[in-house]
Amino acid sequence: QNSSFNQNSSVNKSSPVRQILLTVREYESATKKVIQIIQGEKVALIIEGKFDAVFHLHGYDLMAMSEIDNRATISFKAEHSGRFPLVLHIHDSLLGAQETTIAYVEVRSR
């Protein structure tokens, strides 16, 4: 899986929540992106791709499933500093359960 993201785009500019769009594509080489966040920020990771999947932010133990519009949103307040993998979980009828790290969320101290 390959992923790209835009850290500076905001879906709703009036919101106090920083919204980060992350696009995931199947069947491309894996490139791990690093999403940098400042501790204390409120964040919404908006993950889109053309497949059904569960996305899991390890360390915060948050999960979201892609919806009909092929988007999943993980919203949280970045309270814990560190580097946390964002993992894509897919179940394939031939290959079974698969998981791939698509990005790292890096929460830096103020």
Note the topology.
Blueprint: E1 2-6, E2 18-25, E3 33-38, E4 42-48, E5 54-57, E6 62-65, E7 71-77, E8 82-92, E9 96-108
Parallel strand pairs: 2-4, 3-9
Antiparallel strand pairs: 1-2, 4-7, 5-6, 5-8, 8-9
Rounded to the nearest angstrom, the distance between the terminal CA atoms is: 32 Å
Task: Estimate the strand proportion.
Answer: over 45%
Order of helices and strands: EEEEEEEEE
What's the pLDDT, averaged over the residues? 82
Biggest sheet details: 5 strands, mixed
Structural class: mainly beta
The percent of residues in helical segments reads under 10%
Query: Helical region count?
Result: 0
Strand order of the largest sheet: 3-9-8-5-6
Strand tally is 9
Name the poorly predicted regions: 4-15
Q: Please tell me what the overall shape is.
A: globular
- Give the C-alpha Rg: 14 Å
What kind of oligomer do you see? single chain
Describe the overall structure:
The protein is an all-beta fold and 110 residues long. It is 0% helix and 59% strand. The chain has strands at residues 2-6, 18-25, 33-38, 42-48, 54-57, 62-65, 71-77, 82-92, 96-108. The strands form 2 sheets. The chain has a 5-stranded mixed beta sheet with strand order 3-9-8-5-6, with no helix packed on it. The protein has a 4-stranded mixed beta sheet with strand order 1-2-4-7, with no helix packed on it. Strand 8 (82-92) and strand 9 form a beta hairpin. The radius of gyration is 14 Å and the shape is globular. The protein starts with a strand and ends with a strand.
